[in-house]
Each structure stands twice: as structure tokens, then as C-alpha cells.
Amino acid sequence: MKAGTATASTAPLKFTAGTVLTSPENGAFEYDGTNYYLTIGTTRLAIPLAGGSASYSSINAGAGTAAAPSHSFTGDLDTGIFSSGADSIGLAAGGSKVFDVSSAGLVSPTTGGASVASANGTAATPTYSFAGDLGTGWFRAAASTLAASTGGTEKLRITPAGYLGIGTTAPVGTLEVAGGTAAASTDGSSIKLTAQSAGAGGNNSGGHILLYAGAKTGSGQVGSVGVGATPPSWMQANSLIVAGQLYSNTSIGSSGAINSSASGTFPIVYGGTGASGVLTIDSTSHATKGNINLAPSGGNVGIGTTAPGTLLSNHASNTVDAAGAGHSTSALDWSANSTGYVGAFFNASSAAAANGVLIKGAGTASTNALLSVDSGSTQNSGGSALFRVLGNGNVGIGTTAPAAKLQVVGSSNYGTAEIVGSTADSETAIGFRATNVARGSAGNFVIGANLAGMPVGSFGIFAAPAAKAITLLSNGNLGIGVLNPTYLLQLGTDSAAKPGTSTWTIASDERLKDIRAPFTRGLSDLEKLHTIYFRYKAHNPLDLPSEKEYVGIRAQDAEKAIPESVSRDEKGYLHVTND
């Protein structure tokens, strides 16, 4: 029917408000003043109009297909909604099924099929969240970056490089946990980190588990990694702090249990549980070995002691026992082969230039060196023997083959042995005593220079500490029983003897004399000499004995009567001489 252009009141077809049929009739078209209805069979269906308020509870249509969906769009009939199966809605685009919506969820029918995209979202309002908990879910934190949040705060992030960060927005490794995050209360379960594991199509090349502290950028890091420990502030510069033991449940291979880089250093503390646990510290697994430095920055190293007193201290009980062998449980032993050195002391750190002393043990045969101290040696070669002890007990100084218990071979004008001391009393003396004579008692024999009371530069032999024997001064004067002789030969007492006679033989042959004049003075000069009994004063300057009484004259009287018979020594004392 054509409506034409007439007004509504004169239109060819017009629906007026009224009531619908009491019983729906097939094909009936009705209007109740608000909605339009079309009855199909016995079912009255409401017809919604654009801009109208009419609504309907359901629309029935055929199942449709992806190429011809039941509900499509004008001009795009292969895009829309159709029934893809029982209890399943299909979404088609361009004649192809894109998604299935069912109780199983929203599913794309092909691998790499269509995607569901949304706005980036934020930690506070993640793109994919949950009803009643809109601050928890997943969102796009940045380009190619996925993040998860709980309670409106980001907790986890996956970067474009595939790094997973927990507690950090910038992970630098495959897995990084930061911000004080802890794994606790595992109730006996293990926390396991596996760097590489074998599997089907896999390999055993091995990966790395790296624990970084602080900035995680290599050098200059701060902070620590603690195992069972919260390190105190003074330990924060350490990279790893362990409260408890580091334990290996397998044998340690040739590469060692703890390894460092070529320039790295580390301390090792070992406490084995076995009865014969062994600690091996190797400098490097490289064919060219490096050095092992103990306490290079200071401090002492102790062996068997917790309080070393020197740079290297052995425990006080680690001594040689009565049997002459090292203590069976705590001795400090240095072992070498039959020709090897067991000690080296150098005065420089350069291997080629250092001059030093080497100590070696070279066998126990009587002619082999049991102990040898060499000089002129370097860290690359040995030098000349200075001191040698043979297997038979002979000691040689300056010789490699001593033939006596002590043999000294010198190479200077001062002889084979020289004792040099200060000017203090007895500093350069050599003492001899029998095994049954106590030191300092009578019976000792002392020989040397600068003995007690002797002039500086003199040489003496004492039979006992207080008994003067022989004194030889630097001017050639020899005293027997006199510390400071003023004559070429001077006795300490009036005690001299020789077999046969008691006379001194004096050369008096006139052929040996240049006679100047006869002695013309007579008895009158001799009468001026007064004979006296006397003792020498105790502690007199010439150290003459004061115990015995003598008969003689005064030199002063002789000097007046016969002056040519009197001489004066270097100390100014008078002496009577005669021929």
C-alpha cells in the first residue's frame, strides 16, 4: 500500500492506539499506542523502532554460518554473529570465524588467530582485572612490556628481553628479585634455582646463577648477599655473608670448590666433620700457577693458635719432643727431597735480583749436608755455602767439607774467626769451662779483649773471674798478674823462677858497650840510699801486690844520689834500674 503525501488524518493506512487482540492471531500487525507487534503463529513479537522505546526479550533467527552469519550488517553480510554449535556463539569477520564464545571462554579456533586488545592500563587500573578487585590484574607497562599489579601497585614485570623482575621495574637478568622480597616459611620444602638442566633436545653446557648486590653493574657495587644472616653495618661492603657452613657433599675436583677471577681474592674458613678432613687451597686451575697470599694487607697468621704474635706464629706446644723428632700431633714440619731447599730468605722481591740465604736438607749420609746455609743466591739459583752441618755432626764455616767438629776457614787478613764487640767489659771474650764447673766460679778460663779492668784495646787471659793471668797491651807491654803493665814485661808479684839458677842473665860484655866514662863517685853516694821495709799500697795505680813486705829503697833517694839509675814511666812514677 502506498501512503502518499496526504496528512496523517487522511493517510491511506494509519494505526491508531488501541488494545491488542485477546488471542494472538498469525499475521496480525498491532499497535497499542506504545509498541508495535507482529504475530507469527501464536507468538506476538514486539517490533523495536529506531529512536523508539519499544524492547523485546528475545529475537529468534536461523543458526547462520561464518560466511552468512544470522545477524550481520547492511553492506557487510559476511561479518556478524552466528551459532557455531550447541551452546556456542561464533564471531565472524570477512566470512571467517574469528572467535568462539562458550562456557569454556573466548577462544580463537586457529593457532596465531585473532587477538583481544585493549588500552594499556596502569598499575592502579590494569587492563585485565577482576570484578570486585579492579586494582589487581595485568596491564601494558611500556612497549613490549607486560606487568602485573596487586592492590593497585606493580609487583612483577616482564621486559622485551625476556627478563622477569619481582620487586623491580628494571631487571637485568633472566630473574631478578629485589626490594627485600623474601622466600620464607617453606615448611621444609626446598627453594631451587637451576641454571641449566638436561632434557629432550636439551644440553648440559651449563649456565650461571649470579647473585648481585647493590647496583648489579659489576665494579663498585654496594650491599651484600646474605645466606641465613643479616650482615651488620660494618660488613655491608662484603658481597656474600653466610651464617653457618658452606658445605660440599661431593669430592672436590681439580678445579677446587671456591674459585675467583684472575685478580680476585677471598678468605676461606674450613671446618670439616670427618676425622681426617683435608683443606686444599690452590691458586688457580690454570697450567701456570699464581701466588697464594695470606693476610697481604696486614695482620698475623697463626698455626694452631688463635692469637698469633708475629707475622707467622706456630703454637707454643708445637715443639721438638724429648726423642728428638717432631711432636707427633702438632709439630711444624718442613719437608724437602734429598737435595731440596726448605727455607729461603731474600732481601728483595725481584726473583732475579734478590740476594738471600737458602736452607736445605740434602740427605743424612755422613758426607752429605744435613743443613746448609747459602749466600749469594737468588730466587732462581743457589749460591755459595756459608754454614754447613754434615750428617756426621761436623760443622763447617767457610767450608763445605768440615773434617772436625768445628772447622773455620777464613779468607781475610784477620784470620779464620773474628769476634767483634763493643767497648763494654768482656764484650769480646771467649769463655771455656768444664762441664762440672758452674759459670762464674773458679776454674773458668776466659780469653779475649777488653776484659774487666783492662785498658781499651788490650788482650787478656783470665784463669778465673777475679784472677788476673796474662795481659797484653796494644803497645806491646806484657803483664803476668798485672792488668796494666808499664814495662815490656812486668810481673804482678816477686815470684819468678827458672830451673838451675835464680839469676837473670844480662849482657855485660864490654865489646857490646860504648863506655862513656868511669863511675868516680864512691861510698858517699851509696850512703845516701836509705834501706827500708815496705809494702805497696792497696789499690795502687800500678796494680802492684800489697800483701807481701819487701826490703828496698826509695826511688826518690836514688834519684838524688845516682840519678842515672832512676827512670820515669808514662804515668810519672819512678823506677830504679840497674845493669
Tell me about this structure.
This protein has helices at 523-526, 555-561, and strands at residues 29-31, 36-40, 43-47, 71-73, 76-85, 88-93, 96-102, 105-107, 128-130, 133-142, 145-150, 153-158, 164-166, 175-177, 225-227, 240-242, 301-303, 312-314, 341-346, 356-360, 369-377, 384-390, 395-397, 406-408, 428-432, 445-449, 459-464, 467-472, 478-480, 489-491, 532-534, 550-552, 566-568, 574-576. With 579 residues, the protein is mostly beta strands. Among the domains are: 119-178, no CATH class; 356-414, no CATH class; 521-576, no CATH class. Strands 9-10-11-12-13-14 form a six-stranded mixed β-sheet, with no helix packed on it. A six-stranded mixed β-sheet has the order 19-20-21-22-23-24, with no helix packed on it. Strands 25-26-27-28-29-30 form a six-stranded mixed β-sheet, with no helix packed on it. A hairpin with a 5-residue loop joins strand 33 and strand 34. It is rod-shaped and about 210 Å long.
